[in-house]
Amino acid sequence: MDEISVLSPATVANVVCGFDCLGFALGEPCDEMTVRKIAEREIRIINHDDFGLPTEPDRNVAGVALSAFVDAAGLDHGFEVESTKKIMPGSGIGSSAASACGVVVAANMLTGDRFTNVELVELAMAGEALASGSRHADNLAPCIFGGFTLVRSTEPLDIVEIDFPPLYATIIHPQIEIKTSDARAMLPKEVPLRNAIRNWSNLGALVAALSTGDFALIARSLEDAIVEPVRKSLIPGFDEVKAACLDAGALGGGISGSGPSVFMLSRTNEVAKRVGEAMSRVFEQTKIGHKIHVSPIQRSGVRPAV
Amino acid sequence: MDEISVLSPATVANVVCGFDCLGFALGEPCDEMTVRKIAEREIRIINHDDFGLPTEPDRNVAGVALSAFVDAAGLDHGFEVESTKKIMPGSGIGSSAASACGVVVAANMLTGDRFTNVELVELAMAGEALASGSRHADNLAPCIFGGFTLVRSTEPLDIVEIDFPPLYATIIHPQIEIKTSDARAMLPKEVPLRNAIRNWSNLGALVAALSTGDFALIARSLEDAIVEPVRKSLIPGFDEVKAACLDAGALGGGISGSGPSVFMLSRTNEVAKRVGEAMSRVFEQTKIGHKIHVSPIQRSGVRPAV
Q: Using a CB-CB distance cutoff of 8 angstroms, which residues of chain A are in contact with residue B165?
């Protein structure tokens, strides 16, 4: 096999009380990419979309991840990537992670599956570091493993797959720009121990509730005393959207990644759609353009396109 | 039924990364107590041990908890308690919690099981508040529910039972006194966000690992970046004991409650015994008297004595 096409899913990181560790994969949107072996030991990037992302391999997330792959595998050939991005860069649902993960999973399939999923996340981290300026894996892990993942540690990389019941996500992507550097600068260096305890009690409960499928407990645990209170000011109408979503039946949710997207979890696809309508109604008043995605949480990560 | 005898187990709270929320019940030691209805609407306490605990009901943990029970149930009679404490007060393995929980569970059995386990924890909190000066439930919850419990919140009280594989605990109780007020005063008011994230990543992983029986992950997750580093100075030889226990095969552990007891978790009873011998060897050098308990983690809480 010299060529493969894959779908690489959008992901939600910083799941409420699971800031910087808990994430999950969406069924859609997915980036589509075709990766093919080429004789030259180089990386070529061809973009079939209008996002104007760089095509020089060392300035492109997929290019950097693929270079890391070629080096780690000690290959004597290279790859060409044709990419059709569906996940808008800067949306906060793992656009760069999808680029990095898609190409390393595809390259692994083309070269005899020599790397484990954890090793692939490690390789994709090189690409993610280009995009975000720091080594983190909380979008990469769900993008490759699928489902809910918890990154217990990045050095060494320790990824835990979390059992979960059928769940549906609704995402609203308001068309505003949040600079990751701004979102990061807002984070307090220190937090009250009391709030930290509240967060880890909620995260412990959330993991237990996901494992046992206790929806009422999932709802009660989706509470963040630390990051949401400071970052929500970046997203006009955040409180109104959240209240409207809970009214519409959502279990709970919060800021996706470092925003601007906001996600909500629901028990059924019908409720998730209703939640999307409630989001739209609030945003129509703000005159800010927005896009809604409704999708099951996807149990598989990057997968062959059929 | 006018009288019942119950066993009320020792418990470990502040389970490493689960500070202030995660606890578990031991098979032994257990306090033994007999509770009987009396016609007078009053509480009588009779102690059959040498700990010299007060017998005035309003100065006695069991007495205060029972009074709360009588009030909540609107009873027109009272109770007499004969108590044989086996859990040494001040040991850090839930001695006062055992007193409070034992009597409310027994009284509930004698009066038609009108309260749920959560309600019984709520009533026992009155007694625990007398002992510790604050409302907390992290020893009470495992004492009544058994097994591993996570207290997600105390207002309102929200207790989560956590699945777990067979596990064995080794406890060393060094015969030194730690004042709860000293242990509390050491806690930082604020903690670095980075350490808080590390703690909640570990707690999320620990809950997942307990649920799936992943012993290697249990071991990796038993890590505390926040409380242990400051409180361990209260326990002479803490680092040496911990290192010796890990060498002997323990999965991990830490300070039980606010000390002075130290607990370790192991996969088998044999390893747990070996861990106890390793603890003893370290403490024999310190000339500090000590007591060792080895016990499975008990799936039931307060139970009828047979």
A: none
